[in-house]
Amino acid sequence: MYLLSFIILLSYMVGSIPTALIIGRLKGIDIRSIGSGNMGSTNVIRALGFKWGMVVQVLDILKGLVAVLLIARLHYGDIPFTNRTPFDDFTLIQIIAGISAVAGHIWSAFARFRGGKGINTSAGMLLGIAPIDISIAILVFLIVLMTSGYVSLGSILAAISLPATIFLRFNVFHAEIPGYHTLIVFCSLIAVLLVYTHRSNIKRLLHGQENRFEKIRIFSRRTR
């Protein structure tokens, strides 16, 4: 139990690393006092430009990958409880480590329990667990972003598309997905969490007040 607790704590602390805040301070600003005040890559793009926003995005994705591909491997032996899921013990430990990293990103221990909205760290976690499905979700994000210019809308629809993709692959295309029934519930809960963290963006989208990246609307520009 102590080892699992250590993995949860270490994953949470890695997820808590406030990459946007660190990059902002290196550039002489407090990202929490600019734009939306959110410590995510989108706000960094607005404040510091595309290059630094991508740096934050990659680092936030790596936090999820580190949790599931490296920290989870610290566990050895039997897990300290009965595994009633269809996953093997290691995959279950990966899921626990990944969720801990996402929680750290959203509620950072280094930033008074404020953080980002969890999209990038969740993407990193799921790249290590369900690479095909998260790749489709990333494609959905890019299509929505390039057609609408809204990062938040792309993130929300990508989150929703993840369990939808798993459902369709298993039930329509009859793909073999180990632990399907548990995985779709898990991804659905992740989607609900990410939609919840975007609740303020949803309000702004409904009122036509959400910030839009016009320069990213590639498809829109080409059709003019």
What can be said about this structure in brief?
67% of the residues lie in helices and 0% in strands. By secondary structure, it is mostly helical.
Mean pLDDT: 91
Helix content: 55-70%
* Number of structural units classed as domains: 2
Low-confidence stretches: none
Secondary-structure-derived class: mainly alpha
Please report the number of helical segments. Answer: 11
* Beta strands, count: 0
Largest sheet: none
SSE topology:
Elements: H1 2-16, H2 19-26, H3 41-48, H4 50-69, H5 89-106, H6 119-129, H7 131-148, H8 151-171, H9 180-197, H10 199-206, H11 218-222
Write structural notes for this entry:
With 224 residues, this protein is mainly α. The chain has 2 domains: 1-109, no CATH class; 130-224, no CATH class. 67% of the residues lie in helices and 0% in strands. It is built from 11 helices and no strands. It has helices at residues 2-16, 19-26, 41-48, 50-69, 89-106, 119-129, 131-148, 151-171, 180-197, 199-206, 218-222. Helix 1 packs antiparallel against helix 4. It is globular and about 50 Å long. It starts with a helix and ends with a helix.
